[in-house]
Amino acid sequence: MREGLRNKEFSSRELTAHYLERIEKLDSQFNSFITVSTERALAEADNADQRIARGENSALLGIPVAQKDIFCTKGVRSSCGSKMLDNFVPPYDATVIEKMSQSGAVML
Fold first, then answer.
1. Exposed e or buried b for every residue in 75-98, given b needs 16+ CB within 10 A?
2. d(CA 103, CA 72)
3. What single-letter DSSP state applies at residue 93?
4. pTM value?
5. 107: closest CA among 51, 35, 53?
6. Which residues does 56 contact at the CB level (< 8 Å), separation at least 6?
7. What is the DSSP string of 21-52?
8. How confident is the prediction along the chain (108 residues), in pLDDT tens digits per residue?
9. Contact 79/70 with Cβ under 8 angstroms?
């Protein structure tokens, strides 16, 4: 993926849209995702494409990533798979989410 982005074979937005479509099509069979942040992911992908166009480079820049629901993500429902936390929306990002975001990863 990284090479494809670097060589402009596809954009981060195209890559992200592809994975979002796959999630929408297949997740009802697997029930892998509790929350999918489509709008946020596409906005992060657009931002990554702009950073790539400016010549920035990092290992995760523009790469779509699915994170476990145990990591607090600001503004995104994070239930940790628990009924007790079913509607919890954290006001902050966990350190791992913060660092991945800074590196340009696209959170699905």
1. ebebbeeeeeeeeeebeebbeebe
2. 17
3. -
4. 0.90
5. 35
6. 104
7. HHHHHHHHHH---S---HHHHHHHHHHHHHHH
8. 999 999 999 999 999 999 999 999 999 999 999 899 999 999 999 999 999 999 999 999 999 999 988 999 999 999 888 889 988 999 999 999 999 999 999 999
9. no
Give the C-alpha distances (Å, rounded to integers) separating 104 from 31, 35, 40, 85, 98. 26, 20, 13, 28, 10
Q: Which two tokens stand for residue 2?
A: 């990284």
Q: What's the rounded Cα separation, in Å, for the pair 97 and 63?
A: 14
